[in-house]
Amino acid sequence: QAEDGIRDIGVTGVQTCALPIYGDKFNVLQLLVQHFQGTADYQLVDDRYVATLRQLRAVGLLKKTDVREYNLLHILCRYRTYFSQLRFRFLVDLDPSALSYFAKLFR
Q1: pTM > 0.90
Q2: How far is 59 from 24, CA to CA, in rounded Å?
Q3: What secondary structure letter does DSSP report for 81?
C-alpha cells in the first residue's frame, strides 16, 4: 500500500483511496461522480469532472463496464442536495444498459 492510503487496484490503473471524512474507500472514478460540497459553483465542478471523465475514457482508463462494476450511477444519484445532469448523461451515454441495471437495484 502506498502513502496516504492510495493504492493501485487494477490493470486499468484505477486507484482507491481512504477518505477519513467518510470512512469508506472510493476509487478515482467514484470520487469523480460524487457530489462535491466544497464550492458554490456546481456547474464549474461538473464541467471539470466530466472533462476529466472524458479524458480517462479517451486514454482507456474508463470503460463501459466500469459504470456497473463501480456502481457509478448509484453513487451519483444518492446525493439529494445537488444532482449533476452532466455526469448522469455522460455515464448513461457511456453505458445505457446501466440505467436499467441501476433501476433493478431499487425494486
Answers
A1: no
A2: 27
A3: S
